[in-house]
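Appendix B. One record, verbatim.
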Amino acid sequence: MKLIIDCMGGDKSPGANVEGGLLALDRYEDLYLIFSGDEAAIKAEIDRLGGGRGRCEILHAPDVITGEDKPTDAIRLKRESSMMKGIKLLRESDDIGGIVSTGATGSLVAAATLRIGRLEGVFRPAFCPILPTMSGGIVGVCDSGANVDCLPLQLVQFGVMASAYMEKAFGIENPRVALLNIGTESEKGDDLRKEVYKRLSSLQGINFVGNMESRDLLSGKYDVVVCDGFSGNVLIKTTEGTALQLLKKIKTDIYSRTKYKIGALFMKKMFAEEKEFMNYQRYGGSVLLGTEKIIVKGHGASDKVAVAKCIEQARSMVGSNLNGVIAERIAAIPEDAQ
């Protein structure tokens, strides 16, 4: 299985990207990686880490797309960048299944949509990041920022695509799909949410369980949350920010009194486990669902573990023929749900 790793543009590139790639090669014997980026820098990292396992190559791309570049300008002017050369190779090669990138989100979405293209029937691709739940499982949020303004059909398709993703990539049978809203009652929400609720309720082949309030995101009651990109982005960042600030508050309080410090010594392992539980690096990247090839967007600050997890995600999706399943299920949506 061949995948492309965009090795430039992340906060820890190219080191984390290359090392994460080599970790994945050690883990999966069927994997072959193409590292896209500055050849000298990538080769230096491979040599430093002990070679490329004989299952990798380098696609030389001297330029880098940054977060300051406008997506349209990046696509047009930075054709020699690691991202654009990787996307071009992915588009032209039937034997390459996908690309993993920790680079600029806007440029990646634009390049994937314009250069790779959408699956037949998909109105708009959508991001679906994964978060941990209190029950020890995971929940996917679709969309989380690719589509700020949405039509009812888009949200219906997000539910179908994300449901297939959770099933095929993570082995979750009959994923529970909820619609983000201001209340759980069916009549709650604006006109968009009311219309989407009606369409999802009547849709066969999807386990729609109703509305979800934002406070229940990590409850473990849901496997997929459907929302527009604006609401989804706010939901995820608020949740992550609250968790991080709470951990900081607990740490500050512990150091405020001697008896708290003594108690914390006995709970050190538990605190470490909780910190690891909320570490986004453990859960991989945000998948762009609905494109012709697999696209995984890792966090800009991804370390080697996070990059390896992103590669694992891409490998799982290619191996399970996720795009084929999504195309079939999108085609099966009846007209009255569109």
